Amino acid sequence: MSGFSMTSFESAGQSFVVDPVCEMKVNPEHPPAKIVVQGRTYYFCSELCKRLFEREPGKYIGAVKD
């Protein structure tokens, strides 16, 4: 899943973004977990997805470099 785009969308008046690990909808105003990489915020449905992302960010987004 290289080149992931943090897609945001609205549904029933609520804003959501997509978790780059599991692709679940996440409310960016109350995310279970989030991280900033190279100035960009990524939102996650759980701490587990955040940890998986931290281990291999390049697996989920194309241009991340350590």
Can you walk me through this structure?
- The protein has a three-stranded antiparallel sheet, with no helix packed on it. A two-stranded antiparallel ribbon has the order 4-5.
- It has one domain (8-60).
- It is globular, with a radius of gyration of 11 Å.
- β2 (14-18) and β3 form a beta hairpin.
- The two termini are 18 Å apart.
- Helices cover 20% and strands 32% of the residues.
- The model has no long low-confidence stretch (mean pLDDT 83).
- The protein is α+β, with helices and mostly antiparallel strands and 66 residues long.
- The chain has two helices and five strands; from the N terminus they run βββββαα.
Question: Which blocks of ≥5 consecutive residues have pLDDT under 50?
Answer: none
- The oligomeric state is single chain
Gross geometry = globular
DSSP helix fraction: 10-25%
| Major sheet strand order | 1-2-3
Query: If you average the pLDDT, what whole number results?
Result: 83
Largest β sheet strand count, sense and barrel closure: 3 strands, antiparallel
How many domains?
Answer: 1
Query: How much strand?
Result: 25-35%
Instruction: Compute the number of strand runs.
Output: 5
Please compute the radius of gyration using only Cα atoms: 11 Å
Helices and strands: which structural class?
Answer: alpha+beta
User: What is the first-to-last residue Cα distance?
Assistant: 18 Å
What is the count of helical runs? 2
Give helix and strand order, one letter per element, not per position. Answer: EEEEEHH
